[in-house]
Amino acid sequence: xxxxxxxxxxxxxxxxxxxxxxxxxxxxxxxxxxxxxxxxxxxxxxxxxxxxxxxxxxxxxxxxxxxxxxxxxxxxxxxxxxxxxxxxxxxxxxxxxxxxxxxxxxxxxxxxxxxxxxxxxxxxxxxxxxxxxxxxxxxxxxxxxxxxxxxxxxxxxxxxxxxxxxxxxxxxxxxxxxxxxxxxxxxxxxxxxxxxxxxxxxxxxxxxxxxxxxxxxxxxxxxxxxxx
Length: 228
Ligand code: CTP
Ligand code: CA
Hints:
Layout: E1 14-19, E2 24-27, E3 30-32, H1 39-50, E4 54-59, E5 70-74, H2 78-89, E6 97-100, E7 107-109, E8 129-131, H3 135-140, E9 149-156, H4 160-171, E10 175-180, E11 192-193, E12 195-199, E13 202-205, E14 209-210, H5 211-227
Parallel strand pairs: 1-4, 1-6, 4-5, 6-9, 9-10
Antiparallel strand pairs: 2-3, 7-8, 10-12, 11-14, 12-13
Helix pairs in contact: 1-5
The protein binds cytidine-5'-triphosphate (CTP) and calcium ion.
Keywords: Decarboxylase, Flavoprotein, FMN, Ligase, Lyase, Magnesium, Metal-binding, Multifunctional enzyme
Protein name: Coenzyme A biosynthesis bifunctional protein CoaBC
Pathway: Cofactor biosynthesis; coenzyme A biosynthesis; CoA from (R)-pantothenate: step 2/5; Cofactor biosynthesis; coenzyme A biosynthesis; CoA from (R)-pantothenate: step 3/5
């Protein structure tokens, strides 16, 4: 998929992609995490780079190799992911396209211990949780540094499209890629994905395909949109 001139369609565009889970510390040896593999976010980053974009991938801990052609920033917590994304957004060259595919932990432990918690005979510790910053909502806020196209994901159960449509409005992003993470589906940690692309002008449901294929098709949709 190249333009007539042979120039890659996203040449000269800067993209920011988040991927993977975040790890939220309980103490120096323990953390709260989720089942995200990072496969979908990494595939999107690779596909955008293949179309010529200058890609910064901000990723939580995964077992995946760095995607070719991307600048990778490794983080662990949601707060570190936000800081890395804001640094990328506020760099000299502005971000044109942001894709938030990370499964950011919604909560972190309030006042995580800097010493290892011990069984001291007083019973299990109570973990108080506090909400993490919302990276997608922050990047979606209006302002001179807002990327022209901000895309979020929505991991849902139940009425996936309706819930994700509401989420798109709440977050203020342009597109939402919604997927069904009910038990028995293969999405979380699996190789395939069944997604619905929710835009202001309607919903496009794609057939089940590999996460690499979803990444490639999404990158092409982004390139077509950016060319308009
Ligand atoms: N997201 C984010 N920062 C957070 C939480 C979510 O950037 N602290 C992003 C995800 O990367 C995804 C989108 O927001 O692109 C939606 O994530 P999701 O977990 O589906 O939505 P939440 O707003 O966290 O709502 P809930 O989990 O309660 O459904
Ligand atoms: Ca969430």
